Amino acid sequence: MPERSGDAGMVSEDQRQEMVELRLPRTDEEQEFLSAHRATSPGVPSFLHYYAEGMPFDRYLEVLQQQARGEHLSPQHVPSTFLFAFDGPRIVGRVSIRHGLNEFLLRLGGHIGYVVVPEFRRRGYATAMLRRAIEIARDRFGLTRVLLTCDDDNVGSIRTIEKNGGVLENIVTGPDLATPKRRYWIDARQRDA
Do 22 and 84 contact (CB within 8 A), yes or no? Predict the structure, then answer.
């Protein structure tokens, strides 16, 4: 049985990897979606992309599918696949996989962004989610190298990226940044197919 909040048992990273599934929620999973949203969005306002409070759930799922197809994009956006990380019935986080990079994403955003729901942090979910997202970027979108970025003081993200093979290229600074950004490249071809 998967580890839940308060369980005493430990789950290895390999087990966690097997338990995490990246997908869109089904329409009957709206309550779990709202629960993850309410738990995470106050601290991470960007937890949900393209969602407006009160938006019908089926409409939100439709918008995510349009974004993945590159339809109705704002000028600064690129097509992206937005998926939720499930461990059994629970949403433990989300990932955004950008199919390509524009100038902004090349400098600061990268190909993949991820957030873990607060109650599931520090349990290896971020590492498992990122690993799965890299596989999707390679298998669905043909990306051989993926760029990941994180704040220079975000030790958790640094560890997650480096555990997934991230090689630091540089640290970006500038008057537009409150915190320097670390830029990592991961060779997606070195993953098990």
Answer: yes
